[in-house]
Every structure is written in structure tokens, then in C-alpha cells.
Amino acid sequence: MALSTKLMLRQGQSLVMTPQLLQAIKLLQFSNVELSAFVEEELERNPLLERADERTDPIVEAVADSAERWGEDGPDGDPGDASRQEGDWATDTMVVDRQSLESDLGTEVGNSFDSDRLPASHESQAGPEGSGLSATSWNGASGGNGDGEPANLEAYVAARLTLHDHLTEQLSLAVTGATERLIGHSLIDAVDEAGYLTETVDAIAERLGASPAAVAAVLDKIQQFDPAGIAARNLSECLGLQLRERNRLDPAMQALLDHLPLLAKRDFTALRKLCGVDEEDFAEMVAEVRRLDPKPGRAYGGGVIQSVVPDVTVRAAPDGSWHIELNPEGLPRVLVNQTYAARVSRLKGNAADKSFVANCLQTANWLTKSLEQRARTILKVSTEIVRQQDAFFAHGVEHLRPLNLKTIADAIGMHESTVSRVTSNKYMASPRGLFELKYFFTASIPARSGGESHSAEAVRFRIKQLVDHEPVSNVLSDDAIVVKLKEQNIDIARRTVAKYRESLRIPSSVERRREKMAMQR
Fold it and tell me: How do the domains of the chain map onto residue ranges?
């Protein structure tokens, strides 16, 4: 059989992930914070992108509007006395502002502001020959100082004191020896944000080449620093340091701290016997321990706390429906500067420059389209969620329906993966509170006698209600909760009730009975 070559045409289909498509998918699953950071990077990288809310300096706009409106005629339209009126107008305005400001402050302006930013006096305000504003008053209006540099407000703001800095300042006063200070700095570096020592004394001693006794001696000094309970190695030691600071660490209290697991289990009878005190003293000891701070370092904070900004807001409409809209604060607004792009494109340049401008224009157009598509998709998914969970928004958690991604995807004609990306790290503000979009997707628990199934979150809420309203004489066990739920047409197993109860951090029936009996006493 002879071998030969020939040319053939074949048609096929393949899925190709272009960089633009990957970017659109990435934008869809970004949270507000991540999206803002990404847009900021694009604004720095792409010269054709600009913020939609960028405006000219309001002071410059005001001056330009005034000059254009009055021209050379002055504010009253009298061309014959323009310089005098303009100067007097500026003087009177600044004097009135100064007087009103001094009356509000209760003191002279010179006692509250720098001299180079004070409004000029009545005599010197007019400046040279009808200038209206002197050089000093113009610097004050622009927020600058005497040498023309802008005022640095950050120089007047004190830096936030961290736990590490607070302990280091106390170490420099409490310890004088160089070796002890070196050990102290190593111990402070090993203290976490909660205030606990994360390394053992032996490990620090081995790393520094010092004796464990020397490290323990410095640690004992650091544990006397403010805040009380700092540099503890466990919870019992942390609470003991705070009680020692209050002169409340007696043998009975030390016995209570040595058996904290019994306190967590609410086994007050056994714990009171170990402490050797009566019921009244034991109640005071437990109340004293509960007033302590288990994380003394958190008063100085760690990282910056980022508040949650809702992506969608839901409010009731007058006709009984729900009005869903996107939160403008969570949507970065960017525009493509077509004027600048056209101006640069007309300039003569090499091929590399033209290619760079073309790529920037394409990237900018694609980014704006992707942001718009992202907003429409979030609004579409949120609208369908509100439609499916209408009873929840109207009546509460008890009426939350079981819901999955496929139901929403089929209703809006999208893929489940798209709905999953939209609901990740997105939040909805409603009259019922602030919820993540994934909160509305819960498992289904069947009804006992048929009918519509129940949401797992609604069942958790009913379990919490049953526990909150149980009497001391009849604390509900897991089996009793199962019977109560079956009376409400909820078919649920005992192990599921135990799992939901633990997820709600509700103690067992034995622990709840002990706690309620102790509270009654």
C-alpha cells in the first residue's frame, strides 16, 4: 500500500478561555474590597481609565465661575467702580466669616489656627489695589502654609498604639540590663494579638542561648505589665494574673481556675466541692471570673477591621412587593476617556506606542463592560432570591424555604457555577438584617405528613426557640426536641437535632439544667 499526503478540511468545536473571559469570571466572584483594589490597580496601569466621580477642585471652580460671571464689572455690575467694590466685597465677607468663627469657637481665631492660615484683618484684606484677596488669605483658602506647601494633616494625628509598642515602652522602664532587655524583646515578639505567649520558655531560652530560669524571671516581670493577664501561656494563667492584680487569687479561686473544664460544663456541684466554699461564695467567685477578660491584648487591636458593605439593598414597596437595587457605594465607577484616546491616536509615533494605546483602549472598554455585566448579574440573581424567599422577608426565619443553586440558575437561565460565583462574598441589606447571599441557600428537611419541606435554617431557629422557652422543671433533651418538632410536622432524626444544637452553641440538657438551677439559687 503506497503512502501519500493529502489536504483535508475538518470542522470542530472547542472552548477557549480568553484573557477577557477569565477577567470577567474573576470580577464576578470578587467581593467589594477585592473589586475596589483591582480597579485601583487598573486605574494606575491604564492611562485611558478614569473615575466617573472625578471633578475639578471646587475652589478652582468657584473662582472660575466668579471671574466668568462678574468679569471686570465687579459683583454689582458697576464698571466705573469695579476695583473698590470687589475689594470691599472680599473684605466684608472675610471679616464676617472671622467674626462668626470666633463666636462659635468662643476665642480668637489666632488661638486656634496657625498665623499663616488666618484670614487677613479688615485693613489688610483688600491687598494691593483692588486685588480683593491678599496672598495670605489665598493661602489660607487653599489649605496651604506660609511657604506654599499644602498642610499635612497626618502630622497632627497620633499613630495608634499597638500591643507590641505598649509592652516595649514598659520594658524599657522595668528592665535595665542589656541581657534582660534582649530576652524581654524576644518574649514580647512571641505575644500574639490576644495577649498570649505563643512559644515556650524552653524554646526561647534555647534560641537565645540563655538559661530557662533567666527567661522565666523576665517573663514574670512582663506578666506584671499593663494590661493585666498579658503574656500568659493558657487561659487559667491569664485569669489568675488578672485576679492577682485585683488581690482576689486565694486558694479557693485557684482551685476554680485549675478546673475550668468543669465550669464550662456547668458542673457547679462538683466544682463547689473542689473549692470548698458554700453556695453564696461560689456564686460570687463565678461572677468574678466572668467579669475577667480572656483576651487582654484585644483592647489594642490588630489589623484594620473592614466593615461589610452590602452589594444589594431590599426594601418594602408601597404595593406590598419588594424593591431591589444595587448599592452604589459598592460599585466602582470608571469611564473610558475617549477624548484623550483620540488625541493620542492622532499623534505620530512608532508602532509600539500605537499598539500600547490600542491595547489600553481595548482593556478599558472590556473592563467597563465587565463591571456593567457583573452588576446586572448580581441584580438578576438577587431579584430571584427575593422572589423565592418572599415569605422570609415578610414573616421571618421560620418561613425560610429550602433553596439550591439549580433552582435559581434554571429560573434566570444561567449556569449553577455562575450563581455560585455571584453569591460568594456578596451581601444583602434588608429590613430583616444583613445577610450573605449564600445564607438563603439551605438544605431541605422533609415534612412528617407530606406537604412542603422545611429549611434547615428554619429548623435551627425553632430548636433555639424551644430551648429559650423551656422551664427549669422540664429541660428538653434531644429526644424531647425531636418529639416537639414532629408535632410541628418536621421529620428529623435525633442526631440531626444534636448537630444543629451544637452548631448553635447550645449546651446539652444536663448542662442547661445545672446552669438554670444555679441561677435560681
Answer: 166-300, 312-440, 444-520
List phi, psi (to 5°) of 281: -65, -35
What 3-state DSSP class applies to 288? helix
The owner of cell 462574598 is 425
Rounded to a whole number of angstroms, the CA Rg of the chain reads 35
Q: What is the DSSP letter of 490?
A: B
pTM of the model: 0.63
The number of beta carbons lying within 10 Å of the beta carbon of residue 308 is 14
Rounded to 10 deg, the angle between the 478-487 and 456-468 helix axes is: 120
User: What CA–CA distance (Å, rounded) separates 13 from 323?
Assistant: 43
DSSP letter string over 185-235?
HHHHHTB-TTSBB-S-HHHHHHHHT--HHHHHHHHHHHTTSSSTTTTBSSH
pLDDT for res 357:
85
Residue 494 contacts by C-beta under 8 Å, 6 or more apart in sequence?
A: 478, 479, 482
pLDDT digits (tens, 9 = 90+) for 332-364: 888 888 888 888 878 777 888 888 888 888 888
Are 419 and 380 contacting, i.e. CB atoms less than 8 angstroms apart?
no
Answer for the pair 341, 48: CB distance below 8 angstroms, yes or no: yes
Other CB atoms within a 10 A radius of the CB of residue 300 amount to 17
CATH H-level superfamily of 444-520: Homeodomain-like (1.10.10.60)
Q: Which three cell numbers stand for residue 57?
A: 477642585
Q: What residue type is 450 in one-letter code? A: G
Per the CB < 8 A criterion, the answer to whether 175 and 221 are in contact is yes
Q: Extract the C-alpha cell encoding 320.
A: 406590598
Exposed/middle/buried for 386, CB within 10 Å: 0-12, 13-18, 19+? Answer: buried
Identical fold between 166-300 and 444-520: yes
From the candidate CATH numbers 1.10.10.1330, 3.30.420.340, 1.10.275.10, 1.20.1600.10, the one assigned to the domain spanning 166-300: 1.10.10.1330
What does the pLDDT look like over 51-102, one tens digit per residue?
876 544 444 444 444 444 444 444 444 444 434 444 443 344 444 456 665 6
- Residues making up the chain, counted from first to last: 521
Q: What does each C-alpha distance from 420 to 376, 378, 393, 441, 491 come to in angstroms?
A: 15, 11, 22, 10, 29
Q: Is the pLDDT of residue 118 over 60?
A: no
* Grid cell locating 294: 480572656
